[in-house]
Design a protein that fits this description.
homodimer, 10 helices, two-stranded antiparallel ribbon, 216 residues, elongated, DNA-binding, mainly alpha
Chain lengths: 216, 216
DNA sequence: GAATGACGTTACCACTTGGTAACATCATTC
DNA sequence: GAATGATGTTACCAAGTGGTAACGTCATTC
């Protein structure tokens, strides 16, 4: 039987992008390619070349509409106080990190995007993606700067890296050390650890400031 | 001109494994394949099938001899005190994390191995590698358990994840946030951040213990 | 010194990949 | 209702992949 396909550029582009996400999420970054996407979308691959100009264009279009980080950060900024007090500071940053973790955990195709990026860092597109993220993070940190004496950029980059890597691991390994990443209990342990880390930083910083004051 | 190759199984196996490392480090996980390795080693690919039984066998052989983590951890255990005091505890773990970071940073092919693992998590070999690492880490933590009230497994896994991801990023992006990963200065900032995190945990934990004591 | 088996080579296979040209077909516009 | 351009299809290409059979060629052993 021959299926007659309605001619509709918008719709086929949509289908292609959707298939792109599915392929990335399911098969992983390795088997993702123009042919796979075309097949999955049940669309002739020639159309991908026509509409997106090839793999890079496709990836870019996909990213622009799909990547959640900028939206996520903006949303967090809206609800967050601009200059947190010493008490709320560690709370705020724990919340941010944990929410980021939870959100990232649900976005399978975003995870695959990061995976792709990690193995294609030399490409121009990967670079742009990375610097895009960087700007978004820098913006966030500048607005609600935590631990300003404690190099917030370094700390944040470490914590975000930790969470990112952990989430990527979770889709491959059931456990890391004795932490079960396929149960909520495991993730709660990580959340607690994150809270403790930020809380510890807060305490240490306060203590240092007190020392400075008493010396003066 | 025809180069006559001496017949020597040991040596060609050696050459193949060496080429494996080079290919992984140079071209990255993407373009690594049997053909690439064979070409690089200037060895007929048939020999790879004969000696290693294909890609998986090759990878496994490569891993067994090459992966540094277990050796690294064992070495660290030798020089470290078994039950660190409260004062030396944060110092010890900072040192461990930082040394791990420095070591991992110099091992390009180990980095590519991890990259490979991150995109082939479903394979049996990747699973084995992961659980091998897990055991090594668990062993280490059990011996020099830090912050035993603070879920050391969760904290360690976060910190190691952070460092791992950071190093992987560094070979692709010049900067993360405003941290220049191609200069020592950037890495020193990260080291300082790591020290502060562990120190903060230490202080927080001490304070909690004091509270318990005074309550009793 | 013939036989044997380990080592290395040549040549090929089927299959997948990214990419393109040429074609058919529909929808709008004048 | 003819022209035209956007849409979808067929068929092909070169290049690369993993994998194998069949063939040489050397070294040892008896």
């Amino acid at each position: 039987m021959k299926v007659v396909k309605r001619r509709n550029r918008q719709l086929t582009m949509e289908r292609i992008l959707r298939a792109m996400g599915e392929v990335m999420a399911e098969r992983g970054t390795e088997k993702a390619g123009i042919n796979a996407v075309a097949e999955r979308a049940d669309v002739n691959k020639v159309l991908i070349y026509r509409y997106f100009g090839g793999w890079n264009g496709l990836l870019e279009a996909y990213v622009q509409r799909g990547f959640f980080l900028s939206i996520f950060n903006e949303k967090f900024l809206e609800t967050a106080p601009e200059a947190p007090s010493s008490e709320t500071r560690s709370r705020l940053w724990s919340d941010y990190t944990i929410q980021f973790m939870q959100e990232f955990r649900t976005r399978k195709s975003s995870q695959e995007l990061i995976r792709w990026e990690m193995t294609h860092g030399e490409t121009e597109l990967a670079q742009r993606l990375a610097s895009f993220r960087n700007e978004s993070f820098k913006n966030l940190i500048n607005k609600i700067a935590p631990f300003s004496d404690y190099d917030p950029m370094a700390i944040t980059s470490l914590m975000v890296s930790a969470v990112t890597h952990m989430v990527l691991l979770s889709s491959q390994n059931e456990k890391i050390l004795d932490i079960d990443l396929h149960t909520d209990e495991g993730w709660v342990r990580l959340e607690t650890a994150i809270r403790r880390i930020y809380a510890g930083l807060n305490i240490a910083l306060e203590r240092e400031n007190n020392k400075k004051v008493s010396e003066a």
